[in-house]
Every structure is written in C-alpha cells, then in structure tokens.
C-alpha cells in the first residue's frame, strides 16, 4: 500500500480553496500563527510516521515554514518535494484575485529554483513543474526543459485539469522526470490509467477533492492508498485534528464507491468555481 504524505498548500497561507479551510485555521491567520501551526502539524505528522512532505513556491510561506522546521528538527528519513511555476500574488490576503499566477518560462524556473534552494537547501529531493498542462506549453519548451535537466535536481511535475492523462503520457515520453503528482479521488478518476502506465513515482494530490470528501476522509484516502500505481497519497490537513482523522485511512479497509465518480469536465468546472476559504 502507498504511504500517506503531507502537503502544505493549506498551511503556508491564510487562504485556500479547500472547503472549510477558514474554519480549520481559526481567527488568527497571522504569519506568526501559521508558522507555529505549521511546525506543530509537521511535528505531529513526523511522530505519526509520515515521512513525505510536499510544498511549492506559491504556497505563501509554506516552503519557508517547512525549511525552518527541517533545519530546527533535522528529521531522519524524510523525502521533501517542492514545485515551481506559480507565483504567489495574494500578499497574505484571502480575497486577493488572483492569489497566484502561472509562469512556466525559463526565467521563472531559474529564479524560483534559487528561492527554493534558499529555503530547503540540501533537503530538496524532488523539484516539480507546478500544474503542467498542454495549454502552458511547458513540456515543449526546450529552454525550460534544458534548464531543468542542467540544474541536476531530480525532476517531476504536477498535473491538473481535464487533460491530466494526456499530460502524463507526454511527460513520460520525455524521459527526464522521475515522479508525477496528479489529482485522483473518488470523484475524479480519469488519470488512473495514465498513472499506471507512466512508469513514474506517483504522488496523489487532492484525494479529498478539496474538502468535498471530508466527511468520508479515511475511506476516501484508503481507496487512493490502495491503488496499485500509487506511491504517496497526500493529506492536505491544516490542523492536527484533521490530520489525525486522515491518518485513520492507514487502518481503514478500502471500500470503493464507483457511484461517486463524476464526469471529468464537470468535476474540474466545479473545482474552478470554489471560493478561497
């Protein structure tokens, strides 16, 4: 069975599109409060056996908070991944529009890699293109791909949208990536076959469909963990309470519910309509 990991998308910034995120964070969403919360959740996760931690340049201060925790704790046996390609533009505001902007050009890669290295140092095990899509053209951009290979960092990509399968197939053919991070959950299953044939390490994100499956979190995550092609399934918990509930997936018998599957176009249309917090 796959391992449960922890993503920091909901920990590193005061606003996110997970349903219930605002209530989970509480009233104090200052930088100091979220830093303390992040370190507490990371401590709890590590003590519970989680060893895979994922972040991104666009997760507000998520990379910074994770790097601080790593330097202060020096945890053994962890695998740290981050992502480049989005720029956080919210300025610590919840209602900022847009909260992040995609930039898949070579200049952004080089700048963000240096920023990531400053935050994570030698802890960085995997650097992923954030939300690679056919439309962004990043997988056919020779300047970007060459710069990524020349960086010497193990490379991966995350994918999103209705073209996940197509993007995964295209990335696998390039032969430069070791891992792919994709959305797969009880509602959205379209990427499953492509993940199975990719030959890449598979990291599952949004296993709870941005909170839509929170009421059945252990069961939903258990089904994702049971997929034969899955290596790591990320929890997006922003509190110890929610992470404790997510961890029950490791002891839950996976029982699939095929009737929950949705049309991919409808799923992504609904996701794009979710409000931050």
UniProtKB/TrEMBL annotation:
| Membrane spanning residue stretches | none
Q: Name one Pfam family in it.
A: Aldo_ket_red
Q: Where is the NADP-dependent oxidoreductase domain?
A: 35-218
InterPro entries, sorted: AKR2_Oxidoreductase (IPR053135), NAD(P)_OxRdtase_dom_sf (IPR036812), NADP_OxRdtase_dom (IPR023210)
Return the protein name: Aryl-alcohol dehydrogenase-like predicted oxidoreductase
